[in-house]
Design a protein that fits this description.
Blueprint: E1 11-15, E2 19-23, E3 42-44, E4 67-73, H1 76-81, H2 87-97, E5 103-109, E6 117-122, H3 125-130, H4 145-150, E7 155-158, H5 161-173, H6 175-180, E8 181-187, H7 195-203, E9 212-216, E10 226-230, E11 237-239, H8 241-248, H9 254-257, E12 269-273, E13 288-292, H10 295-306, E14 310-314, H11 317-323, H12 333-342, E15 349-351, H13 355-361, H14 364-380
Parallel strand pairs: 3-15, 5-7, 7-8, 8-12
Antiparallel strand pairs: 1-2, 4-13, 4-14, 5-6, 9-10, 10-11, 12-13
Length: 392
């Protein structure tokens, strides 16, 4: 594990039916340094690395921001290949070509096991586009913290909101890591399905895992289609985005259901589908929402617009609420944490997310079901039992 300095310390293990889980090693003993950066233990929305806090706009549902926009990559190839409008890919290309960044740490397809992900480093546009698009499976870009820290250059880090939360914690403890991260980008996230879920989806299309030569979750139009190519040749097997996500979403780990942040509050810039603008037309030109979280993000985005890398129009927090259902999870997290405590299960500490206020704003039926539904899940899935892993 990148943050652990012990030879036989904690490491991450991919449990195909659950996702990545930390496992203690022989040298761990009473050491708990890794817990200081683990978003499964605690997340504080106030740990944002913002150098312009005086101009922030506070919003309980969308999170604090400097600006909200709709837009897309000006480069049609990037817009076509990337998910929705290709904003994160376009900003990464700009950061490499004109923004003073040396490389991008992000997630791409594992060529040895295409149904899985791997963390990659891209240093130019072709490499970025080779790994562009959403990857609805377990990923761990935080595993390269040590590489970033020892690097002679500065990087763009792209990760899930929980990855960016871990990065924010690690940057406070590792000054050189902080200095070498020039930009932290994230995306709207509803959870990460396990690798077995992807294998089952592929199997349903008549392709065995060991026969996969390539696998794409989205892209090549909006919303894009799931596509798997077999080593046996022939036409690739495809299904719609809606069917893909509906199937995979059933296999998200429990931690995703108690996540307070699906919108990357601790990033510099967050982006995701502007579903309120989707007309239902198959594989149309994608449009993204863009939420600027920090002054650093604002300056880079403005420069990218001026340089012709992205095209933007002003939007509002209400538009994001219309487009995304992710904010609704924050209305039930407080109740779910109560359910966990009633089972005597270790509970994450979340600060400055307004979870109690969000919970009180929902109706009594939802408030009650958030508690008792969690109690049922803890019993049915046996999440109350100890395991050799820190979390199940």
């Amino acid at each position: 594990m990148a943050f652990c300095e012990k030879e036989n310390g904690v490491d991450l293990v991919d449990i195909p039916t659950a996702g990545l889980r930390p496992r203690s090693g022989a040298d761990c003993g009473s050491c708990s340094r890794c817990l200081a950066v683990c978003p499964g233990v605690s997340v504080d929305a106030a740990e944002t690395n913002d150098d312009e806090p005086e101009s922030i706009v506070e919003n309980l549902q969308v999170g604090n921001y400097h600006g909200v926009y709709e837009g897309y990559a000006a480069d049609r190839e990037i817009r076509f290949i990337g998910s929705s409008g290709g904003i994160l890919s376009a900003l990464s290309v700009y950061a490499l070509e004109k923004g003073g960044m040396d490389y991008v740490v992000h997630t791409g397809m594992d060529k040895a096991q295409p149904w899985k992900n791997r963390t990659v480093i891209s240093r130019n546009k072709p490499q970025l586009l080779d790994n562009a698009g959403s990857r609805y499976c377990t990923s761990s870009p935080c595993e390269l913290f040590d590489v970033i820290e020892k690097s002679a250059g500065r990087c763009v880090f792209i990760g899930k909101p929980c990855d960016v939360a871990a990065l924010a914690k690690a940057r406070r403890l590792r000054p050189q890591l902080d200095a070498n991260v020039g930009l932290a980008l994230s995306f709207f996230c509803a959870g990460t399905p396990c690798s077995d879920a992807v294998r089952e989806l592929v199997g349903g299309l008549g392709v065995e895992a060991d026969e996969i030569s390539s696998l794409r979750f989205r892209g090549q139009g909006w919303p894009g289609r799931f596509e798997v190519q077999s080593t046996k040749g022939g036409e690739p097997k495809t299904i719609s985005y809606l069917r893909t996500w509906t199937t995979l979403a059933k296999r998200r780990p429990f931690r995703c259901h108690i996540c307070p942040d699906g919108m990357g509050l601790l990033s510099d810039i967050t982006s995701g589908d502007a579903w309120n603008r989707y007309t239902g037309e198959a594989e149309s030109d994608g449009i993204s929402h863009v939420v600027v979280r920090t002054g650093r993000g604002r300056r880079l985005l403005e420069s990218a617009v001026q340089a012709g890398y992205v095209e933007l129009t002003p939007s509002t927090a209400d538009d994001i609420i219309k487009a995304q259902g992710i904010h609704l999870r924050r209305t039930v997290v407080f109740g779910r944490l109560i359910g966990m405590r009633l089972c005597g299960v270790p509970t994450p500490r979340y600060s400055n997310f307004g979870l109690f206020s969000s919970w009180l704003r929902t109706n009594p039926l939802v408030m009650t079901s958030s508690i008792f539904g969690t109690l049922k899940r803890m019993v049915v899935r046996k999440l109350w039992r100890r395991s050799p892993y820190f979390y199940r």
